[in-house]
Amino acid sequence: MSLAAAAFKGSAFADNKSLPVHRWVPWIAGFSAAFVDGVLDAHLPAKAGRGQPLVLDPFAGVGTTLVQAAWRGCRCLGFELNPYAALAARVKLAAPRLDLGSLDDAIAQTQEAARGWRAKPPDAHWRPPAFRSRIPFFSPRVERQVFHLLSFIAGIAQPEIADVFRLAFGSVMVSFSNYTYEPSLGSRPGAGKPLVEDAEVSRHLLAKLEQMRADAQAVQALTDAGRRAGKWEVRNSDFFAGQARLPPGSVDLALTSPPYLNNYHYVRSTRPQMYWLALLGGPAEQRWLEERNFGKFWQTVRQGAPVPLAFRHAKLEELLGQLRRLRASAGAYGGPGWANYAATYFNDCDRLAAALHRLMAPGGVAVVVIGNSIIQGLEFKTDRILAEIAARHGLALEAVHCLRQKRVGASITQSAVRRGEVNRAALYESAVILRKPS
Q1: What count of Cα atoms within 13 Å lies in the side-chain half-sphere of residue 390?
Q2: Contact (Cβ atoms closer than 8 angstroms) between residue 109 and residue 158
Q3: DSSP sequence for 200-245
Q4: DSSP sequence for 14-74
Q5: How far apart are alpha carbons 85 and 57 in whole angstroms?
Q6: Paired sense of beta strands 373-375 and 378-380, if any
Q7: Cα separation of 189 and 384, whole Å?
Q8: What is the DSSP letter of 265?
C-alpha cells in the first residue's frame, strides 16, 4: 500500500471535531486521526516480527498521533512544550483505563455542589495573580462560579479524575468568558460580539464531562474486544533538550507537525487555560515557553542583530536577504524583523533534521507535516526547504505530498506587521516523507 493512497486524505485537524476522544479539546492546527491511521497503515506493517515499534511525535500537541498509535498497541512517545496541550494528550491517552465509576461519582458530586455556586461566597484566591487581560476575562457572576469549580476540582482525591475535570474546564472555559477564538484569542467586543455577563458554568462543564465519559466507555469497549492500548509517555518538555537522552536508532516511525512559519502564537492563545489551571506561574515562565517554541515567535526575535542561518543554503540565504531589504526603514516591524523570525525558524528545522537522523532506526520513516508561508510578499516553500535541509543530515527524501491548499491569495500578508507586495501564491500544507537509509 502506498503512502499516498493510504494516508493523504482527510488530513485537516477539523475532522477530529466529531471523533470520540479527539473531540475533547478544540485545537487550532494539526492533522486528523484518519491521516495518522493512513500513515501507520503504510509503515508499521514493515516492522512486524521486529518487536513492538516505537512511534515518536516530537511536537505532540493534544496527542492525535499518540492516541492512534497507542490504540494499535504501539509504544509511543511524545514531547510537548505547552503544559495545557500535554495535559490534554495525557488525559486522552488514559481513556482506555479511566475509572468510570469514580468519574460518575465525581460528576454526581459536581451536580450537587453546583447548586450553591451562585449564592455561596467564593474563595477569590483561585484567581491567578499573574494573569492579565485587556478586559476582565470572566464577568463577575461567571467568575464566582469558576472559583467554586476550581475549589471543587482541588478537592478531588484521585489525580486522574481531577485531570479529566481540569481538561473539561480548559476545553469549555473560553465559551463562557469575554474572549473568543477568531481564530486567535481576542476579546469578544473586538470580534463584534457582546460580553458574556452571565452563564451556567456547571452546565457547560457537565455537558463536556458527559461527552468525555461516553467516549471513554466506547474506547474501553473496543479495548475489551481485543484492542489493547500500547505503552505511552507524554513528556512536557523541550524536544531538543529531551531527545539527547533517547537512544540512537530507537524510533521506527516519527509523525509530527511542528508549528508553521505563520507566527500563530500557541502560548498566548492558551494563556487562559495555563494560568487558570495553575500550569503557568507568571511572565517569566511564559517567556521561557515562548523562547523554546519551535521557531520561536516574531515578537521574541524581531529586534537585535540579524540572525544568521546555522547552515549553508544558497537559495534560502538569498531569499532571507531579499526579505531583510524590504521595508528596512521599519526595522523590527519591517523586513529585518521578519527575516530574523524566518532565519530562527529554519535553524530549528535544521536542528529537527539532525535529531531525526540520530533517533531513527535504519529504514525508519519520518513524516513531517508543514505549511508554506508568505511574508512581506515573499513565498517560503518550507516543505522543499525542509527536504533539502534533511538531505544535509543523511535523510533521504521519498516524497513531498501536498495535503491541501488552505486558501489562495494574500490573506496573511495584509496585516500591519506582514504588509508587503501582494503574492498570489497558494497557501498549502504538505507531508514531507523522509527515510533513514538502511
Answers
A1: 27
A2: no
A3: -HHHHHHHHHHHHHHHHHHHHHHHHTT-PPPPEEEE-S-HHHHGGG
A4: GGGGGSTTGGGS--SS-B-HHHHHHHHHHHGGGGTTS-S-EEEETT-TT-HHHHHHHHTT-
A5: 13
A6: antiparallel
A7: 41
A8: -
Query: If residue 267 lies in a helix (H) or strand (E), which one and from where to where?
Result: helix 266-269
Enter the DSSP assignment of 416: T
Cell numbers representing residue 137 in the block: 476575562
Question: What CA–CA distance (Å, rounded) separates 427 from 410?
Answer: 9
* Cell 503504510 found at: 42
d(CA 332, CA 341): 10
Identity of the amino acid at 10:
G
Nearest to 323 by CA among 310, 337, 313: 337
| Tally of residues, the chain | 438
- Could you count the other beta carbons within 10 Å of the beta carbon of residue 415? 9
- Please report, in tens digits, the pLDDT of each residue of the chain (438 residues total): 344 444 555 566 567 777 899 999 988 777 889 999 999 999 886 554 557 889 999 999 999 999 999 998 899 999 999 999 999 999 999 999 999 999 999 999 999 999 999 999 988 899 999 999 999 999 999 999 999 999 999 999 999 999 999 999 999 999 999 999 987 899 999 999 999 999 999 999 999 999 999 999 999 988 654 457 789 999 999 999 999 999 999 999 999 999 999 988 889 999 999 999 999 999 999 999 999 999 999 999 999 899 999 999 999 999 999 999 999 999 999 999 999 999 999 999 999 999 999 999 999 999 999 999 999 999 999 999 999 999 999 999 999 999 988 644 333 444 433 455 555 678 899 999 999 999
C-alpha distance across the termini of the chain, in Å: 20
Q: CA 42 to CA 107: how far, in whole Å? A: 41
According to DSSP, residue 319 is labeled H
Tell me the Ramachandran region of residue 429: left when phi exceeds 0, alpha when psi lies from -120 to 50, beta otherwise. Answer: beta
